Task: structure prediction
Amino acid sequence: MTGTRIASAVAGVLTALLLQASLLGPLTFPVPVSLPALLVIVVGIYAGPGVGMALGFATGLLADLGSDHPAGAQALVWLAAGLVAGMLGGLPLQRGYGTRGVAALAAVLGAATSGVLGLLLAILGSHAATAVLALEYLIPVGLTDALLALAVVPAVRALLRAQGIRPPRPAARLIGSADRLIGSADRLIGSTDRLIGSTDALG
Result:
């Protein structure tokens, strides 16, 4: 990853964390909506599981440092969210889903991420975290994430394109490319055999 891409990633993460702390968090309290988690998921969908995992861990660790719950909880959950988003990202991209389709997937993953984090915090005995609340907030988080994703998805897509980061190619396209390559090789071998046969006939 080049210095420009690292700087872009750092700027995006810090911006999301700042908006979460100063604007989104107070407006949506007590619903645990997380703009940084949504950013990790959308980046994972477009850039693949490797980038999603790295961004999820780094962003979650920064968020953990400024929170009062056990350190490492958000880093672990957001790392998993980036991984899952990257693994599932090929399907909507293969089918040509637009902003709404990707936003819907991101919202579902965002709600699931919030639920898993809530359950983990409840298990760890974090203050005011219970399994009941984690499940009750799934739908509000999902709806809010869907609205936020309509703005986050095009912004992330434009940024990744500007930085020259291409989305992961779906497996079907890779298989199709391999089949075409094998077919071309077969035709080349056939042409070579015919050329050798013609040469033998002339000899």
Summary: Residues 169-203 form one domain. Residues 169-175 have pLDDT under 50 and may be disordered.
